[in-house]
Amino acid sequence: MEILRVDGRDNAIFERYFRLREEVRQAEQEFPAGFSREDAQVMFATEHSDVRVEGLGLVDGDSWLGMAWLDWWLEENTDVLDVEIVVAPQYRRQGVASKLLDVIVDKARADGRTRLSTNVIAGAADGTSSGTAFAEARGFVRTHEELHQVLRLPLSDEAIGKLDRPVTGYELVQWREHTPDEWLAEFADAHRAMSNDVPQGERGLEEMRWTPERIREAEARRIAQGRFCHTTVAVDGDGRLAAYTQLGGSTANRERLYQYDTFVRPEHRGHRLGMAVKIPNLRSLQADLTEPAIVHTWNAPENGPMIRVNEHLGFTPSDRRVALQRTL
Fold first, then answer.
1. 203: which residues sit within 8 A by CB, 6+ positions away?
2. Do the domains 2-113 and 150-315 sit in the same CATH topology, yes or no?
């Protein structure tokens, strides 16, 4: 057996690496979610200012036993290495995940990282799975959980109309792939506030330092990945961006869509702005739908208001995403 380093530049190796991940995820989850191959390969093969992405494969001849996805954060949380480990079903309980983890620990320590972080899919009812059992047996502790909800599209105009209640005192503004120049600074500040406001449990993560330049880099990366995005914001009477929401997906997997951030500044809460931006954004997305699709979203259980908004829209629970950390 040997460990292969995967950087996305060798198409044949990346195909085998990513196929293993996708096959396992599809086999074990009712609603597969995540990057398409095209999305992922851009992340691996391109340099980014905020993250370096690396893959590892454990192979035996022509057989791929397992793989790992590593996110090395470069702007914030530079003491953390994010890790995902996947093992082919026929090679489980043979030490594959442990071999990959040992290599990852050595690499993290050599880079000066002091924490490993991972997210594992678990049952919606009890929050446990073989993944959580493996992680906890090897020194990881739970730091956070998020409820995964899904929504089947398209929704009828009647169903959307029943939820559409205009709010006074705010103007709604929409855009697609590029944030208008006049909103760039406000949008970057809203992203920063969002990263600081979202429940994070005991993960101990730093506030993300969003700037207009970082917004532009994220947009360019999304376009390079073949992804699309619909954005709706609410602007108050003073011209401040009070709330925003984003929906999107990949042209390679149009049946998988994602509710990205939805954020309402604390001083503007209580005015139904969450629903006020979500409804027109959903209409914008549905106008481009050519086939049925499923929208995925994740929220911390303590974020009750946003979960209830999603429930009103028709989202139903699928599973939980459990965050765990290990101190090195």
1. 117, 143, 144, 323, 325
2. yes
